[in-house]
Q: What sequence folds into this?
């Protein structure tokens, strides 16, 4: 069975600090996809990144970076120089190859304090 | 990019009435759509998978007679909450896939249902 764990329920940091959101997953499949979504107060889910299980290369996009470690089944998300607009709930999600169902973690509520 | 429109964004209804929520793929054909439910400060729970032209597949514990799903065309799926009660109050979000194994699902903006 698939499972996604986001142990951090809430995080608050002061603006401009760096922050890392943790994600640990479980799956029996050897091929799968990992995702991060942002959910601002308005409610819509904003896609941030998709990572294939066979590609462990870390990725950086502006202030965002992702660290995929297959050995520890983790897919952590770091925001550098945080901004108030980063305040949102962030969800990590898992999908097995050939299956469109997404399994979401419980989310981490990030608050950036001005 | 792919856009999914969800309507209404907010709805308030009296207990016992039925409410229909629409999910439309605006610029692509969605062979599969998914309906999620999100309680306040909680995660998204998959309710059902809807395939165009066939019956929806419901997740365990979801009442199919309570949450009617219709996917009559490749661009529209509807969720009808029948005889709504206050405990049905929630945030409902749909997502759409462009085809089997689609890499990224596109989500609608969600519909907040409040049952008085």
A:
């Amino acid at each position: 069975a698939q499972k996604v764990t986001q142990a951090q329920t809430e995080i608050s940091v002061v603006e401009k600090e760096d922050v890392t959101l943790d994600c640990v997953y479980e799956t029996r499949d050897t091929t799968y996809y990992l995702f991060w979504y942002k959910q601002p107060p308005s409610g819509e889910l904003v896609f941030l990144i998709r990572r294939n299980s066979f590609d462990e290369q870390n990725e950086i996009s502006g202030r965002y970076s992702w660290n995929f470690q297959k050995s520890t089944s983790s897919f952590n998300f770091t925001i550098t120089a945080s901004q108030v607009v980063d305040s949102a709930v962030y969800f990590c999600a898992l999908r097995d190859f050939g299956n469109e169902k997404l399994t979401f973690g419980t989310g981490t509520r990030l608050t950036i304090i001005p | 990019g792919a856009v999914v429109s969800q309507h209404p964004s907010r709805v308030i209804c009296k207990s016992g009435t039925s409410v229909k929520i629409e999910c439309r793929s605006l610029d692509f054909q969605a062979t599969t759509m998914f309906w999620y439910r999100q309680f306040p400060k909680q995660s998204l729970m998959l309710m059902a998978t809807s395939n165009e032209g066939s019956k929806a597949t419901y997740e365990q514990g979801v009442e199919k007679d309570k949450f009617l799903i219709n996917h009559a065309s490749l661009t529209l799926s509807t969720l009808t909450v029948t005889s709504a009660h206050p405990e049905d109050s929630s945030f409902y979000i749909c997502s759409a896939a462009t085809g089997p194994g689609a890499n990224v699902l596109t989500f609608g903006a969600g519909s907040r249902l409040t049952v008085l």
Chain A touches chain B at residues 33, 35, 37, 42-45, 47, 50, 91, 97-107, 109 (CB under 8 Å). The first strand of chain A starts at residue 3 and ends at 5. Chain A has a mean pLDDT of 93.
